[in-house]
Amino acid sequence: MEPNLVSYSPILHRPPLRWPNGARLALWVVPNIEHYEYLPKFVRTRDPWPRSPHPDILGYTQRDYGNRVGLWRLFDLTDALDIRCTVSLNMAVLEHFPEILGAMEQRGWEYMSHGIYNTRYHWNFSPDEERAAMEESKEIHQRLTGRRLRGWFSPAITNTLHTFDLAAECGYDYTADLYHDDQPFPLNVKTGRLISMPYSVDINDVILHRRGQEAEDFARQIRDYFDTVYAEGAEQGRVMCIALHPYWVGQPHRIRAFRRAMEYILSHPGVWLTTAGEITDWFNQHHLPLIESHLAAREAANG
After folding, report:
1. Domain hosting residue 177, numbered range
2. Taking the model in full, what pTM does it have?
3. How many other C-beta atoms are found inside a 10 Å radius of the C-beta of residue 271?
4. CB-based contacts of 98: which residues, under 8 Å, 6+ apart?
């Protein structure tokens, strides 16, 4: 990452961030709705299916469970708790699975691009190849929803040295590719404007799964994380992201633990349950000018 991509500012030294209606916390819930190619089109720096020669039936079908079953179980939960999600979306899902598109549209969910397929890593992409994937994502979204695509999150977290400048150039408003802060923050890009939206690789079900942890561990970490940032949010507003993968959290033995954790969070006042786009709009309108003045003053003071 370019050392000057993100200006340094300790969070407690910044102007206080205030959310709508005095909320302490902006909470966005992010299902990663993905599609993995049965026979990946190309393999560069890493094999998407390293377990066996292609096709990897085990790996493919485990993930396919999410789109066939787990996601629909998650829909039931989010309906019951009135949670509107921001989807980290492989854009090919919209073309392969119209039933999923219809279900998300019915619920008014928001989408950010997670690339075209989760088996097409961007490592070693040329700028032209990466730009093409960003533009294709926008085209698919516009054609099938009639709306502008606002968020970018590289597939399988495979961003390049060019990702952020390209995302701004392509007209994206925010990126979820960085994990460096508890608040949105402006990035120093060559053209346009791009906001870093706090995403989580800690409060993230599949990362915990890779560490050998299970649903009750995930639920406990959600509650502990929430208790900390909720208390801190009384002085300095925070963002909490809960990242989900329907093929994991949507399993019958896991969904109930996640529901209990969400019920705990939503029992508290001062939680703004929202989307990445709404966070971006509020931040840009109400707080970005304060941050820009703060950063300019720091730069002047440091010579």
Report:
1. 16-301
2. 0.95
3. 19
4. none
